Amino acid sequence: MDRAALFDVDGTLVDSNHLHVLAWWEALRQGGHEVPSHAVHRAIGLPGDRLLEHLLDKDRDRSQDDRLSTGHDTLYATFFERLRAFDKASELLRTLASDGWKVVLVTSATDRELEALRRAVDADDVIAETATADDIERGKPAPDPIEHALALVDVTPDRAVFVGDALWDMKAARRADVTGVGLLCGGLPRAELTEAGAAAVYDDPADLLAHLDTSPFRSRPVT
């Protein structure tokens, strides 16, 4: 039977969280909202609409939300050509694929952003499917993105592992009954990822690759 290795992308495979923070911080500032960058950072990983709900006043003028999101998208797009994958990110995906795992990207990025992220990761030949914010109505921390990804490859939750860097990733994995693995390269502390549901936490893709034999990937059934 098939097994699925599900991966968030921003902050997990690609070193992009700080760029999202800058783009959101500037878009919010231009829209008249003074939000500290540390608060923006902790919200990264949420889809744009939920990020705004998380950061801004509930009784704000929501008619400006689309403009704020567009401002972020425009600013972030200026970094597309400078996006870089974390060390060993591509090798990690290739190693799992060669071991029989179906590799699926599960991201809050839009389709346009994902194109740039995939170029940075440079592992298209082993990526079986992708699930983006454009595919579902509810994004992380709802389980919908993960459930959609599993449906794409016809794999059950007990035969999947989801790797992410955000609290929202671990919460979504837990709600989807999928084993969650946290990475510290997105900037959140180990204790918070563990508390949110991570079964194991590693520094970055290179650290996970180095410890693959003792990771949750080795506890998933093979047949």
| End-to-end distance | 5 Å
In sequence order, what are the helices and strands, one letter per element? EHHHHHEHEHEHEHEH
- Count of alpha and pi helical runs: 10
Low-pLDDT stretches are none
Mean pLDDT: 95
Tell me, what's the shape? globular
The tally of beta strands, per DSSP, is: 6
Give the SSE layout.
Elements: E1 3-7, H1 17-30, H2 37-43, H3 48-55, H4 65-77, H5 89-98, E2 101-106, H6 111-121, E3 127-131, H7 144-153, E4 160-164, H8 167-175, E5 179-183, H9 190-195, E6 198-202, H10 205-210
Spell out the key features of this protein:
globular, 223 residues, 10 helices, 6-stranded parallel sheet, alpha/beta, single chain
What would a concise description of this structure say?
The chain has 223 residues and is an alpha/beta fold.
Can you describe this structure?
The structure is a single chain. The protein is α/β, with parallel strands linked by helices. The chain has a six-stranded parallel beta sheet with strand order 3-2-1-4-5-6, sandwiched between helices. The mean pLDDT is 95. The chain is built from ten helices and six strands. α1 crosses α2 and α1 crosses α4. Helix content is 42%, strand content 14%. The protein starts with a strand and ends in a 13-residue tail after the last helix.
